[in-house]
Amino acid sequence: MQSADHLLPLPPATFHILMALAEGDRHGYAILQDVAARTNGELRLSAGTLYRSIQRMLEQGLIVETRDRPSPEEDDERRRYYRITAFGRAAARAEAHRLIELVKLARHSGFAPGRA
Amino acid sequence: MRLYRLLLHAYPVSFRAEYGEEMCALHARRCRDVANPLLLILLWMETFLDVAWNAGAVHLDILRHDLRYAVRTLARAPGFAITAVSVAALGIGATTAAFTMVDHVLIRPLPFAGSDRLVKLWENQPGYSHMELSPANYRDWKRMSRSFETMGCYTVRLANLVGQGDPRQITETRMTVEMLPMLGVKPALGRWFEAADDRENAPATVILSNSLWQTVFGADAGVLGRTVILDDQPYRVIGVMPSDFYFPTRETRVWTAMRFAPADFEERTDTYIYPVARLRPGVTLAAASAEMKLIAAQIQREYPKEMGRTSSYLELLRDSLTPKSKLMLYVLLAAAVCVLLVACTNLANLLLARALARRRELAVRAAMGAGWERLLRQMLTESALLAAAGGVVGVVLAGLALPLLVRLVPTQLPIAEVPALDLRILMFAAATTCGTGIVFGIVPALRVLRGADSAGLREGSRAGVGGRGEWLRSVLVVAEVAGSVVLLVCCGLLIRAMWRIEAVDPGFRAENVLTLRTALPMPKYERTSARAQFYQRVLGEVRRLPGVTAAAYTSSVPMVLRGGVWPVEVEGRPLPPAERQNASLRYITPGYFATLGVPLLAGRDVAESDREGTLMVALVSESFARKYWPRENPIGRRFNFALRERTVAGVVGDVRVRGLEQASEPQVYIPYQQVPDGAIIGYTPKDLVVRSSIDPLTLAPAMRRIIHEADPEQPVSDLRLLSRVVEEETEPRKVQAAALGTFALIAFVLAAVGIHGLLSFAVSSRTQEIGVRMALGATSGDIFRLILRNALALSAIGIGCGGVAAYATGRGLESLLAGLNPADPATFLAAIGLCLLMTLAGSAIPALRAIGLDAATAIRAE
Q1: What is the predicted pLDDT for the residue at B462?
Q2: Quick one: which of B84, B639, B822, B845 could link to B810 by a disulfide (CB 3.0–4.6 Å)?
Q3: Residue A2 lies in a domain
Q4: pLDDT at residue B542 in the model
Q5: How many structural domains does chain A have?
Q6: ipTM greater than 0.90, yes or no?
């Protein structure tokens, strides 16, 4: 598989979307809700940012649109569902690793709490 | 929700199609979740910002993507890319260069404050629309008029600057105190003239031009307060003008205060000053002109004898150039636009051919779900990229071409010689580039995309043949041929007109004549005898130089000073003021006619013995004698001229004083010594003319030495061959003909390329058909004719359309054609012949390739 390093650092919106999709396929509105819940309402992605990110992530192969749909009573046919790819997981892991390394450096400099 | 849907139109169509519905649903849910109306307003504000930001970002993403794609595909076809960029560069470069010239000379406001309200005032007499004013008329016009905020005046003369290195002759503009504040340009150093500087007996003051300050005074800021000597008079330096200040023309090196003595107001016909005025706010040029006409009429009634024929003429300072110079520039611009159109047509043709060839690729992309909007966008990005590269190269080309066009910048405007390529011009070039990119990109793109879906896959590489694609390309080729015909004909007409003018007999023989100027300063040379002493000494020694066959002094050689006219009154034949005529006035030393090769037709030349106190004589030109004494012997006849009664002593041939293109007044020549001290009318003799049997330029050092020995403080200027003076008459025309010739050549080559491209494409896509024809017994000749017939038909239509357009354009050029018929058959035949030749040249290679095809291989080609 192609290395995800050239995509780093991931834009925050992209990283959040990947985290929202980590637990399962979601449609756009569900992604927004997930991101908002995960950040205690701190981050509220706008529709434009969401779909612009989705378009780019589709092109980059971080996610795919899935044809598997939930049971009809929960479904709305206008909705599109997205699924994280293996490449997407790799990219998210690489980004997380990058952030961890960054935090380590910050601790060394005394900018962040915890063991240096 | 309607509003939100409307907002979504800011996104690209493809994005909207993909995500629009979901975004709407999402927005609707958000709106439902908000209960508070205040928060709803906040949400909408956030939405507006979100759309503006993200739509822009999506567009930018697509642009980046398309640009990458375009660069990649163009890199794969470097031949195509280079051709397209060069063609665009030629079109954009030609248009930018021509626009720069037109803008510089005709459009851009003059670099003076409120320059659109600055007007020039002239006296106007039958036959002369632009005559200088006499101080008396200036004083009265200024006093009586109400249309102007301020009025000032200036006059230009040559002055000798001594005491700063070698003596040098410079152009001095004397101006009244109102002039500089009216123009609104502050000196870079020092101050303007003040009212005190204008007064008689005040210490004389001078303002230096930046170029003189740099070259002669080494840009020394301590120059203020220093004294310089101009024509033997001390002047105190009070200022230095900025480097981009020119007034009234580029020649002026110093400005001095203009002063009038009471005696200056006595002679109303002695006209030598140029008034400039600023219109009051709200007063139009027409209203001011009307007022000045009334004032001139009033002065006419007061002084019927002197002012009987004199009216007034006003023009904007911006417009003070001849209709001919304006037309020449507009012709240049029109020709450049023609080149641009031919270039655009050619590019459209190139892109169409490429697009048709890429039809399969486009069809595949369309089949894979790319919307037509995305494909159109992609193709336009490619053409815009080509146009942008062409634009950059074009601007560089224009910058290189500008110095070659400076001859088209008239010298009488207060503007720089070489126009600057500034932001304004770059904006123009950018707009032209955008227009070019869109015009030549959109036609082929739309043409190909109409039916790019499935037809492309089916038709394969034969797409466009015999269909609308080929039809469109044929129309484009016809347009190119027509454009070249127009340019060729116009260029041909202007060249023929130039030849005509060059063939005009100037009335003198300019070959082997050297001329130089020694403008003798006043009051040092106020006495006629002092001047005579100088001329006699210089001429005596110059005539002794080996190789010199004749030498003389004159007030001005023909075609340099074009005016210098004076009214004529013939004894016993009083004419009503309106019919009175002028003649040009020149003072000469003996030997002038022999030097210039002007034939003496009757009587005698002026002689050294013609002095003050002897009979006042004059030599007149043939047309003068014919006009006043038809079928009579003019010798011994008397007439009043330049304040004296003169007797005709001889008749000489007519000379084209006003240049090759303009009729001249009859000429009168007066012996240089028959002038009262300090009261010469017009100009004292200052131009030395020398005819030699050897290369006249080799005489220059000896002549300089002779003049230096006669008066060490006397500068020498304007040293040149008289033949140069005559050549300069047609110089602007030469530049214009060269520019138009270049444009015509470009259009011509582009059209040939267009024909070649069209036929090559036709041959390669009709390979199979040609094979079948050959198999059925068609000979090489048949095939050759088949291909050629196609090309000639297109060419014939193009020549027909172009011929009509060229005739119409030629009619518009009539005033530049020096009497040449705008339908000049030779020019039209030559242009048509060239176009046919171009058609043959363009079709030769494809036609030969068609003949060379092997029937069996050709049939199996698909």
Answers
A1: 46
A2: B822
A3: no
A4: 94
A5: 1
A6: no
B281 shares a domain with B419: no
Q: Per the CB < 8 Å rule, is A48 touching B50? A: yes
Q: Give start and end residues of each alpha helix (H) in B576-719.
A: 592-596, 622-628, 700-710
Is the residue at A19 inside a domain? yes
CB contact under 8 A, B25 and A29: yes
Q: Enumerate helices (H) and strands (E) in chain B, giving the number of each.
A: 26, 23
Q: Which residues of chain B have pLDDT under 50?
A: 452-466, 862
What pLDDT was estimated at residue B22? 85
How many Å apart are CA B824 and CA B832, to the nearest integer?
12
Q: How many CB atoms lie within 10 A of CB A86?
A: 9
Q: Where are the alpha helices (DSSP H) in B608-729?
A: 622-628, 700-710, 722-729
Whether residues B368 and B488 fall in one domain: yes
- Would you call B50 and A76 a contact, using CB atoms and an 8 Å cutoff? no
Nearest-neighbour CA in chain A from B434: distance (Å): 28
| A45, closest residue in chain B (CA to CA) | B50
Which residue from A28, A52, A55 is facing B26, i.e. has the nearest CB?
A28
**One domain for residues B298 and B210:** yes
Q: Is the peptide bond before B78 cis (omega within 30 degrees of 0)?
A: no
Tell me, yes or no, whether B803 and B757 share the same domain.
yes
Helix (H) or strand (E) holding B502: helix B468-502
Where is the domain boundary, B277, B308, B339? B308
A56 contacts on B by Cβ (under 8 Å): 61
Does B626 lie in the same domain as B654? yes
Q: Which of B22, B27, B54 sits opposite A80 (nearest CB)?
A: B22
Which of A52, A76, A79 lies at the smallest CB-CB distance from B58? A52
Residue that terminates a domain, selected from B663, B683, B714: B714
Do B19 and A51 count as a contact with CB atoms less than 8 A apart? yes
CATH of the domain at A54: 1.10.10.10
Cβ-nearest to A29 among B18, B29, B57? B29
- CB B134, CB B260: distance < 8 Å: no
End-to-end distance of chain A based on CA atoms, in angstroms? Answer: 34
Number of independent structural domains in chain B: 4
CA B196, CA B201: separation in Å to the nearest integer? 10
A113, part of any domain: no
Q: How far apart are CA B428 and CA B426, in angstroms?
A: 5
Q: What is the pTM of this model?
A: 0.76
Q: How far is A89 from chain B (nearest CA, A)?
A: 24
Note down the domain range covering B436: 323-503+731-859
